[in-house]
Amino acid sequence: MKEQSVTSGKELRGIPVYPDIVIGKAHLVDRSRAKILYQCFVNKEQVTREVDRFEEALRSVEAQFISLKDRMPDTVKDQAFILDSHLMILKDSMLRDSTINKILSEKINAEWALKKTLEEIRGVFEQIDDDYISNRISDVENVAERLLRTLSGDTAHSLSNINHRVIIVAHDLSPADTTELNTAKVMGFITDVGGRTSHTAIMAQALEIPAVVGLENATAWVEDGDLLIVDGSSGVVVINPEDSDIISYQERKLQLEKYNSSIARMSHLPAETPDGHRIAITANIEFLEEVTAAKDYGGEGIGLYRTEFLYLRGKGFPDEEELFEDYREVVEIMRPAPVSIRTLDLGGDKFASDIAISEENNPALGLRAIRFCLREPEIFKTQLRAILRASAFGSIQLMFPMISGLQELLDARAILDKVREDLDREDIPYDTAMEVGIMMEVPAAVAMAEVLAHYCDFFSIGTNDLIQYALAIDRVNEHVAYMYQPFHPAILRMIRQVVEAARNANIRVSLCGEMAGDPLCISILLGIGLDGLSMNARAIPLIKKLVRAIPIKQARADLEEIMRLNTAKEVRTYLLKRSREMFPELEEKGYLLD
Questions:
Q1: In 37-157, which ranges are continuous DSSP H helix?
Q2: What are the C-alpha distances in Å from 367 to residues 329, 364, 448?
Q3: Looking at 373, 456, 512, 521, which residue is catalytic?
Q4: 235 and 8 Cβ atoms separated by less than 8 Å
Q5: How far, in Å, CA of 240 to CA of 84, rounded?
């Protein structure tokens, strides 16, 4: 047992998930891994029995997930797709067939074969240069862990049995765990692992309960029954707080509730500066189920629809009809607002398929995005056909990712033209005026922006990748993560260069990276002259409020001052000072973190 004085008043910092504050007692949940023992068999009957055990475990876990889905409370019914994805993982050949093959070929027990399969899958996902997609390995691990517990006869304690108001503390919570949470009893939760795009975070947002993830060692510091303050707006967790801390956070909670309520009331107003400059505020989404939230939070369209999820959640590649139905439903819900669909941004080795592509040492610079699509034109054509067909039902704008030069763009457009010809010949309707643009996320494309602009209807700046490539930073490498700096003067100059090229060619230009939803960045992005910003839906009300309070003349004047600065630290310091002057409430509510 830890000494009370050791943890009294200690602060932990993690990733904020849902902007609210809660104070309550900790309930430590043991989600330790099932113990796996190695066994090897010599007799065929024993091997066959292991295959039968594994298949029975698959059926049992499938029944568990179906039961959980059926019992999901109405408040999170829209998130049922999370358990659907777990059911698909159970049936995927990467998990099922690989494990059975290992049992048969290596004559080992089901648990050990599953462990080896999981290690292989983890290695594949680690190569994916997309935070959202690479985080999906946690879903595979959650499914495998439930299978292992079923095989061993060990069942984890159900969170649905909690009968007093608590804050859950765990190393991790699976989507199945979070569907069992009784929000009348669970006030919030904190976890050692997880990110903003993890399903744990998604469920916290759907349940609208305060949560902080990615704390690394919360379970090592917190004892069962400890008093906790969880600040889901700043990512701070206080263990056994002093009375003064409790009073302070209670006051902050009331202020935050009033502030968010006032913001929400204005979220459907246009994003227009006091001196009449209008900018489009749209949402980034990964899957169909997020479209409703995009509208509810005041999104004026979908600025980025990442289409990779449909390629990862099932066995092999989705067919044209599956893609078409998904895209059609998105555009029909958003109609008449526009939906910008980004074509596939994954490499062929990143998911189960019949296409064999060798493992790459540096997949971020390898066969991915438009390069993969040009290498596999039939897969590309299938997606383009689905997008074009869906364009007959609403406003679609098509974006090609990771374009690095004109030839790639010309090749991609040539395939698009061929697909259009095929649809014309088959008398299938589509929007003949559908706009086509590119993601500006490679420094070479920025250098060629003046040329590329003449072959596009719009640009969309993807700052997440642009920062990584321009500053030579692996943003998932903890040793250099501190160098991932959106305020680096080189990045600001690149963004301005792209905007100027778009202006000269009379085409639109928007920005859809994490910068778009950062309150500290809004003045810069307004001053640079972007036509639109696309972000996580929940960031929209606050960003709209800020836009409506910053005169465009002031934003342009601030930009000129900022462009004279030489380091990211100087830029950030300047912006913090200006934001504190204009919006002191942002720091009070935890939106400005120095």
A1: 44-70, 80-91, 96-106, 110-125, 131-134, 137-152
A2: 30, 8, 21
A3: 512
A4: no
A5: 39
Q: What does DSSP say about strands 227-231 and 21-28: parallel, antiparallel, or unpaired?
A: antiparallel
Verify whether residue 512 is a known catalytic residue: yes
Helix (H, G, I), strand (E, B) or coil at 298: coil
521 is an active site residue:
no
Task: Specify the range with the lowest mean pLDDT, choosing from 61-75, 121-135, 237-251, 482-496.
Answer: 121-135
Q: pLDDT tens-digit profile of 446-458?
A: 999 999 999 999 9
Which of 199, 373, 456, 521 is flagged as catalytic? 199
Token code pair at residue 86: 């777990």
pLDDT digits (tens, 9 = 90+) for 296-310: 999 999 999 988 877
Domain boundaries, the chain: 4-31+157-250, 44-152, 266-588
CATH superfamily of 266-588: Phosphoenolpyruvate-binding domains (3.20.20.60)
Q: What is the DSSP string of 378-433?
A: HHHHHHHHHHHHHGGGS-EEEEE-S--SHHHHHHHHHHHHHHHHHHHHTT----TT
| 44-152 CATH | 1.10.274.10
Q: With 0-12 CB in 10 A as exposed, 13-18 as middle and 19+ as buried, what is 165?
A: middle
Q: Is the pLDDT of residue 554 over 60?
A: yes
* CATH no. of 4-31+157-250: 3.50.30.10
